[in-house]
Amino acid sequence: MNDLNLIRKDPALARAGFRDRGGRYAPALEDLIALDSRHLELLKEVEALRARRNALSQEMGKAKAQKDQARFDSLMGEVAAGKAAMAGKDAALAELAAKVRDAALGLPNIPHPSVPVGAGEQDNPVVRASAAPKTPQGKPLDHQSFGEKLGLLDGAAAARLSGSRFSLWRGAGSRLMRSLISFLLDLHTSEHGYQEAWVPALVRPEIMEGTGQLPKFAADLYQIAATEAEKTETLFLIPTAEVPLTNLVREQILPEAALPMKLTAYTPCFRQEAGSYGKDVRGLIRNHQFDKVELVWVTRPEDSAAALESLTGHAEEVLKRLELPYRVMELCTADLGFASCKTYDLEVWMAGEGRYREISSCSNCGDFQARRMNARFRRAGGKGAVELVHTLNGSGVAVGRLFAAILEYGQQPDGGLAIPRALVPYFGADRIAPQAA
Q1: Pairwise CA distance, residues 35 & 15, whole Å
Q2: pLDDT tier at 277 (50, 70, 90 boundaries)?
Q3: Choosing from 21, 357, 376, 401, which is the catalytic residue?
Q4: Tens-place pLDDT, residues 375-433
Q5: For residue 381, what pLDDT is reported?
Q6: Identified catalytic residue from 165, 167, 179, 271
Q7: In 3-state terms, what secondary structure has residue 299?
C-alpha cells in the first residue's frame, strides 16, 4: 500500500507514477484522492465536535461546583445539541475510512524513479546476458515431447488425474526434479546466506492481503472453506512462498540488528491462471500447480536498492552453475508487477522454442508490503520512532521452468539428455540415456 501522506503532499507525483504504469489506474487514484479528501474533512469536523464536547464537560463541572444552575442548564443544552450534530458521524467516518483503505489496497506500487518508462515488455532493456546459446545439431524437441520420449514426463496421466495445466513426472524425471530442489536450497543456504523455512501452503486472507495478492488477484487464487471446532474460515493455497515468508514479519517490530533478514523456501505453488486462457496449455511453463524455490529479503530502507542487486545475482548464479544461457531484463514502468517498485526478470534460453522465457522475477517492493503488514523495525539504541522495513522477493528459481530449460538445452545427438555438471552429485549420473525402441 502506498503512503497516503505522500499522495496528499504530492498528488502530481502519484499521478505521474500511475500514468507511467499504463494509465489504467488513473481513475482509481482519483477515486482515492476524492475519498481521502472527504474523510479528512469529516475527521476535522468530528474532532472539532469532540473537542467542544470535552470543553463543555469541563465547564459543566465548574458550573456545578459553583452551584450555577442556569449556567449548568445552558451547557447541558449545548451538549444535547452537540450530540445531535454528532449523530451518525462516527459511523460515517468509519465507513469512509474503510472505503479509503479499500481504494488504497487496489492501487499498485509507485515505480522507483530509476525504472525506465515504457509501454510494455517490448520496452524492457537488456541489462546483461550470458554467452550466446550453442548451436544445436538439428531442431531440438520441445521439453514436453522430449520429456515424454525419455519417460520423464507423463502428460496423459496428469490430465486424467487433474485436467489441463497439470504435470506428472516419472522415474528419472522425478529424481531430476528432486535434485534441482536440493541443489537450489543448498546453493542459497550454504553460499548465499539464506535461512531455509518450511512453510504452510494454506494461509488466511489477511496474509494474502499483506503481500498484495488480495484483493487485486482474487480470481487467480485457489481458496477453500476450512471448518474446525464448528468455526469456518477461508484459507488460500499459496501462489508463491513469498506470501508466507514475507508475512513472517507481519505485525512485528524488529531490532535493527536482525536486518537484513534473508529467507528461502521450497514450496508447491498454486494459481488458476485466470487471465491466460489458451496460453502455454501444454508443458511446464504455465501450470496450475508448480514448484519454486523462493528468495525473500527484509531490509532497512537505505539498503533495499543494493539488496535487489544481490538478490538478482543469487538467482542468476543458478543459471550460471547449470550452464544455461540467459539474460537479465529490467522491467519498464508499464510491465512492473503490482507490489513492485523495481524489478529485474531473468530469462532462460528455451532451445526447443528458440526464444528466452522468464524463469525468475526479482523485485524490490519498498515499504509497499510492509505498510499492509505493519512490519517495522527500530534503529539501534531503541529510542527513535519505529520505521517500516523494505521487502524484496525473487524466484530462486522456478523449478519446473528450470527442468524444461535443461531438457531443451541438454538434448544429445543420440537422443539422450546431458545433466549439468553442478547437478551430477545430486542426480548421481551425468546423462539420461534414450529409451530403447
Answers
A1: 16
A2: low
A3: 401
A4: 999 999 877 789 999 999 999 999 999 999 999 999 999 999 999 999 999 999 999 99
A5: 85
A6: 271
A7: strand
Catalytic: 179? Answer: no
Exposed e or buried b for every residue in 130-144, given b needs 16+ CB within 10 A? beeeeeeeeebbbbb
Instruction: Answer whether residue 168 shows pLDDT above 90.
Output: yes
- 401 flagged as catalytic: yes
What is the pLDDT, as a whole number, of residue 384? 78
Annotated catalytic residue within 59, 256, 273, 358: 358
Let me know if 395 is a catalytic residue: no
| d(C-alpha 420, C-alpha 427), whole Å | 10
Task: Decide whether 4-105 matches 121-432 in CATH topology.
Answer: no
State the CATH architecture for 4-105.
Orthogonal Bundle (1.10)
Task: Summarize pLDDT for 35-59 with one digit per residue, the tens.
Answer: 999 999 999 999 998 898 888 889 8
Q: What is the pLDDT of residues 144-159, one digit of tens each?
A: 999 999 999 999 999 9
User: Residue written as cell 508490503?
Assistant: 369
- The length of the chain in residues reads 437
What are 390's strand-pairing partners? 299
Distance CA 236, CA 207 (A): 9
Domain boundaries, the chain: 4-105, 121-432
Please check the confidence at residue 182 and state whether its pLDDT lies above 90.
yes
Q: Is 431 a catalytic residue?
A: no
Phi/psi at 413 (nearest 5 deg)? Answer: -55, -30
Which one is the CATH code of 121-432: 3.40.50.1460, 1.10.3810.10, 3.30.470.20, 3.30.930.10? 3.30.930.10
- pLDDT, residue 333, reads 98
Catalytic residue among 360, 361, 363, 395: 361
Residue of 204, 250, 286, 431 marked active site: 286
* Cβ neighbours around 263 below 10 Å, total: 23
Whether residue 271 lies in the annotated active site: yes
